Amino acid sequence: MDFSSINPALLLASLMVASTAVLIAAIGELIVEKAGVLNLGVEGMMITGAICGFIVAVTTGSPLLGFVAAAVGGAVLSLLFGVLTQLALANQVASGLALTLFGLGLSALMGQSYVGIKPPSTPKLDLPLLSDIPFLGTVLFRHDLMVYVGIALVAATWAFLKYARAGLILKAVGENHEAAHALGYNVVRIRFMAICFGGACAGLGGAYISLIRVPQWTEGMTGGVGWIALALVVFASWKPWRVLLGAWLFGGVTVLQLNLQAAGIAIPAEYLSMSPYLITILVLVIMSFDRSGAPASLGRTFHASQ
Amino acid sequence: MTGTLLEIVGLTKAYPGVVANDDVSFSIGEGEVHALLGENGAGKSTLVKMIYGLVKPDRGEMVFQGKVYEPSEPQEARGRGVAMVFQHFSLFDALNVAENVALGMANPPKTGALAEQIRRVSEQYGLPLDPWRLVGDLSAGERQRVEIIRCLLQDPKLLIMDEPTSVLTPQEVEILFATLRKLKAEGTSILYISHKLEEIRTLCDEATILRLGRKVGTCTPREVTAAQMAEMMVGSELHRPEREASTPGEVRLALKDLSVPSPSQFGTSLKNITLEVRAGEVLGLAGVAGNGQDELLAALSGEITSAPGMVSLDGVAIGNKGPAERRRRGLLTGPEERLGHAAAPNMTLTENALLTGAEREGLMSSGFLKWGKARDFAAAIIERFDVRTPGTETAARALSGGNLQKFVIGREVMQRPEVLVVNQPTWGVDAAAAATIRQAILDLAAGGAAVVVISQDLDELMEVSDNFAALNEGRLSEIKPAKGLSMEEIGLMMGGAHGMEVAHV
Questions:
Q1: Looking at this predicted complex, what is its ipTM?
Q2: I need a surface site. Which of A27, B111, B154, B484 has the fewest CB within 10 A?
Q3: Which helix (H) or strand (E) holds B20?
Q4: Nearest Cβ partner of B90 from A168, A179, A292?
Q5: Measured between CB atoms, does A136 come within 8 Å of chain B?
Q6: Which CATH code of 2.60.40, 3.30.70, 1.10.3210, 1.10.3470 fits the domain covering A3-121+143-287?
Q7: Tens digits of per-residue pLDDT, B315-329?
Q8: What's the CA gap between B411 and B378, in Å, rounded?
Q9: d(Cα A29, Cα A17) in Å, to the nearest integer?
Q10: Strands (E), B47-118
């Protein structure tokens, strides 16, 4: 065992990277759930975004176009969920599970000829001066753009829900869709927009894994991150900053266990691999005793009768 | 009154299988308080939804301030100066007062300025409100204030109020009326929907009466009696329930210091409720909605359990027993919400009859159901309570509110309860069906059962109760004989005006 090989600055820096995918997906799902819709298809939308982004980035050679394609891919898949639950009034839980299964299958089909290819690498932002700060520079300022996009999304979502009128309307729809309808808000349209945003975010999160974190394509490579994103939203009591904390915790334990494996600690690797999921769930369960944030109409089907 | 504000000509709206409004015409003058009268299902709500732009009429036209008025959505109606206070409040529990108000406005000012406005207007009209409080923590009366303030901030020309007093104490009604009179004096017209005739007589200038979607008459409420209006509404004379005087017997149901926390976040916990109901007695429990009625019913039915001694039936402690055990012993309950709580919407009447009657009516043996017997039981309820339905195999949701209510109350009454507890037994039920249900309750008491009636309809409670008490924030007032109680006393028992005051200006 050799713990001296673990460099704290590098550990924290890779924590930021490891948490980004789950963070972006969870923030998207938070908006969806705030609008009163429970979309369990995050995993399916993530993996679809991962392959869409991968294909476009490989074909065009531009990682940026890849991320755009990933967002579009995730959003298109989420539209399917939207049509099923908002227009056909299908059960949200069943539709979401179906979406995950469908997304896993679809992505495997699309990705058949892309296994083993390396995507174009995404440039890291090299902020002059800032990245030269010892320790902090390594931890905070030597990442790719998406890391900052993720954190900016959290801040934007928080401000949107707290200060924007549109955010207030979104919360109102999730809180009491009948009352929102009575006041003249178009519940179905608002929910559709939220679902699309959630799909785009999940797609981005998925592409982050296939283009930056791993960078390659393998079937089922999101490996349950979508489910962790779902759990994060609930256990974070639908509060954006708590989602960020949860994502960091998940990312932190993930890189820590990798480092511990590399350091040759005498715990079977399987236990270490399951530890991020276990610890995230445990901590979040404890945090979630404050369940006040749940949107009251979450998961309920809305139909504007009469 | 100077001119006509809103004129409605030949408004018609049909839903599959029912004509909600058929060729309705009337007009509202400026500064007039116009009553829209009718029983449940007469088409009042559909009519005002058309005026508010929530529902599009099939035919007919409206003229507002001399111009054609065809609102396609509520925003447009609000833009023209039409505001509405809903019967089931259109409020959001998890948001604060200011946010709730902002959601109902087209162009709300910044939150700080809005809060200031809310405070100013609410005090001006004697409806004090703290803009930062969470709506979920407010009483029903305070919630209504939020709705009214939301309307007032938009300077409405026409204010529509859908059954505004059903959730208020008598004192709160007085204050509401003072506010409405002040608005009228300022030139605002009010369209007031209710089926409380005395209120309409004190408040309204003109009345339009609807029956089964048609306009059946108009009157000037001050010049006719409540009985005359009732006859126009119902189309026939009303039979009033009768009862024979009886002497109360043994104590059947006793609650001793019953305290239970509410299972829901915005519910009301019960605090030290002590009462006794004797054989042959009807105890009426009044209270504004949300003061612990649902929790009390649940604590009695066994949905919420408590310490054993807190609830006893015929001297046996049953506080820790579940619903099935209590039913077996003869404590039956009828909750307020008929679809989803009293009856399973998608199940047939036979199945619904079986759900609560299986035990006492012997509808099952060693785990197997006796469908034939269950059907007979359902048929017997339908027959005795005159439930209008094609048959016993109809789904509960297909019945109209009044008919389903007759069925779910009848189902409990037919099981010969020792003690019956009902919450809002005639809510949303037409007058004739309400009379049937009240008569059944009285007959049951005359037969030696003890009955607890929880209701927000004070007239109903006065009609059926021997003793009377009120729930206020989960506490029970003193229990008094119902005979000779004044509205003033009742109002105080219900908690008075909950911090409201009369309009200042």
A1: 0.79
A2: B484
A3: strand B18-29
A4: A179
A5: no
A6: 1.10.3470
A7: 999 999 999 899 999
A8: 8
A9: 20
A10: 59-64, 67-68, 82-85
